[in-house]
Amino acid sequence: MQDSPSDHFPVTAVLLRKPSQHRWQKASWRLLGFLPGLEEAVLNQAVEQGELIYLTELQFQLHRPHCDAYYHNLMAEQPKGYLICSEEGDTLAPMLATVDFDEAASFMETDEMVLDAPLADALCVWLEHYVVAHYKPVAPKKRRRHRWFEADKGDVR
Fold first, then answer.
1. Has residue 153 been placed in a domain?
2. Distance (Å, rounded) from C-alpha 33 to C-alpha 84?
3. Please, which contacts does 134-139 make with residues 24 or more away whose CB atoms are closer than 8 Å?
4. Helix (H, G, I), strand (E, B) or coil at 6
């Protein structure tokens, strides 16, 4: 019997912090990606642009009802991971790391800071194993038209 794929994966988010050009904002933030899987060349290039911040002790947590969203993320041209944060002065406080765009979009609607970055191949493989094991697409249903003319026949004046 094959083991079920894990529903969580520990990650470290790597952020680039640069001084902001905006007069009301102290820092500009960019999510470079998640470890494991972020290339050393990307990190070396980013060090020249600003300060690297490593947010450890994060994890992607998967839930079976959201497999549809994970599937669509994998089928996108570039699968992405999302980091939801709240800005506290000069620092960011991470709230959630996710691979579910729908979940990230719900935080965008509440004006939380949502950063995204391409998912590394190792994370895509893990996500794919979970989706293959648990995703059951819903069969499309054909809509039936309501027959208005039959309802009107009994009401002839």
1. no
2. 13
3. 134/64, 134/67, 135/67, 135/68, 135/70, 135/71, 136/67, 137/68, 137/71, 138/68
4. coil
Any domain includes 146: no
Residue 44 within any structural domain of the chain: yes
Q: Distances in Å between the alpha carbon of 44 and those of 16, 19, 27, 49?
A: 11, 18, 20, 9
Query: Which pTM was predicted?
Result: 0.81
pLDDT band for position 3 (50/70/90)? low
Greater pLDDT, 106 or 3? 106
Strand partners, 13: 34, 55
For residue 72, what are its two tokens?
């669509």
Would 140 be classed as within a structural domain? Answer: no
When divided into structural domains, the chain yields a total of 1
User: Is the Cβ–Cβ distance between 129 and 5 less than 8 Å?
Assistant: yes
